[in-house]
Fold each of these.
Amino acid sequence: MAFKILISDPLSEEGMYPLLQAENISIELATDWSQEKLANQITEYDALLVRSQTQVNRELITKATNLKIIGRAGVGVDNIDLDAATEHGIIVVNAPNGNTNSAAEHTMAMIMALSRKIPQAYLSLMNKQWDRKKYVGTELKNKTLGIIGLGRIGAEVAYRAKGQRMNIIAYDPFLTEDQAKKMDIQYGSVDEVLHAADFITIHTPLLKETRHLLNADAFHAVKPGVHIVNCARGGIIDEDALYHAIQSKKVAGAALDVFEEEPFYDHPLLELPEVIATPHLGASTFEAQESVAIDVSEDVIRFLSGEAVRNP
Ligand code: NAD
Ligand code: MLT
């Protein structure tokens, strides 16, 4: 009997190659299904593959009476109710390594675009303004980059920022002073990072402990003129607090790839000229999408053929 796999978010076609090659597997693409249709049909499927858009909530999981495995083509599993999946005996695998490089590169692109006001200057020029005074930027060399969350992506950002001759101070609950020394970066508490940094970039998951980690108190503690970057998860920054911190000029600017609610169009933050933004594009490269789709497809095949998953 063929295993039925439902794919409800767009995955790289090249990355789905292992699934197309595998025997006894049938694939259905459901990228245009509503959440309601998904809930009505999910019972037919053995495996569900998603990115970050599909909300694999308790309601969906409860209806997924034949589901055995959920594959998340990417890192964050915050769109999946892990408790509900566990209660229903459904295994969840993700692809934590495949998009590290792309997310780190996007973060550096955001830091550089922010420091040189490139999106604002581009828009101004497209509006037939040749304004060189308004878009004077800030050098990165000798500035301090504060990294909160020094995991896979945070560490890659640190290596790249050193290439820009930035000083790095980082906080991560699993980072020791010794490890920091070996990476030639300064170890600091969250408070020390907030006080020292000219640019702050966040690379933690969204957890109970990290929700609104950058809130009004944090913006009170930062250096005046700091730049904030979030290419991790919406909700780690309190968006209203960021808005007020920018309006009061405490924060000079922010680069945001992720938002508390996505898709995101109408927030007052997007009306501030100091804010640049991308629509959750950190992992959106051909390489990363192929890589995460391959990783998760291979793991689903392993599982459905009775082998142990690797969850690379
Ligand atoms: P990771 O698990 O390798 O690293 C996360 C780090 O955060 C860990 O080292 C962990 O110890 C640390 N951490 C946990 N709680 C913390 C806290 N309270 N304070 C400080 N640090 C804390 O994950 P990663 O692969 O580096 O991904 C980081 C984030 O980026 C995740 O939220 C992920 O979902 C997101 N992400 C976004 C995109 C995008 O498209 N924008 C792409 C890939 C990953
Ligand atoms: C992730 O957690 O991997 C990213 O948010 C990228 C994605 O949406 O797939």
Amino acid sequence: MITLGIESTAHTLGIGIKIGDKLVNVLDTYQGSYIPRDLAEHHAKFFRPLLESALSSAEISLRDINLIAVSQGPGIGAPLSFGVGMANYLSYKLNIPVIGVNHGYAHVKIVEFTNRRSGDLALYISGGNTMILRVRDLKIIGETLDMGIGNMLDKAARHLGLRNAADLERLALQHDNYLEFPYTVKGMNTTFAGIFTYFVNRANKKLDRVENLAYSLFHTSFSMLLETLARAVFAYNADSVIVCGGVAQSRILNEMLDKFSKQYGVEILRTDNMYNRDNGAMIAVLGEELYMQGYRSSYPLEAIPRYRVSDSLKHYFNR
Ligand code: FE2
């Protein structure tokens, strides 16, 4: 079985190929502003070169592919529809099935695939998403009540004239002091608007070293997340937690997770950074697994821009 995975929900176009246990993963990320049409144009420009590069890495031709999997949502209308459209076209052209998958569920699934085991809970943290899931039924048991943690960190970075959260973290790692920041946890949910506003106001006053401001923002917002995660671990009697999504690449978070793991006796399941970013391999992995379980998408597939992860299995019929 050879599965092609297409990821185009936001600024990254990813093409993945799964051949048995082997994964090929190529991607390109648009570096400009978030204008939907520009994202779609970027993906249209890179689709063919990335597809050709993935096929040559996998040492196969297009005709060897048996199944097309695509991120059906959630995502930004224009780039998302481009990927779904390409998946429909390739399915028709190659006369093979197409299956649509939930992008968030794919983030969880790639960690299970690379660890060769499943987890009890998942902490899914990316630009737009911040949630704790029960993996077996994808029930959302905690989430942000306002902004996603990744978007909050990216906005904070741009406020300082930096590119993104990764640049902000490089700055934060040079801190020499921790500053007290507002801390808001509501049960198993979090909110980040308050801490973000506090960061902006304090940065505007220019009284603190920006390294310390950055570190305190990361440390405090991650502490909030881990408090809700600890509550979820006890409430659901969990032994293992999958950590996935773009923010899972954070070094500060991973150091805090090491301590969390020891403190609460819970195993943390992680994956390589190349699979925490948006990518096509995770789409191929989930699409193939669902297909093998008998799930089928109707043709042609339609994009679902607001596709909740808890609805991951609602858009199929079983054959
Ligand atoms: Fe993502």
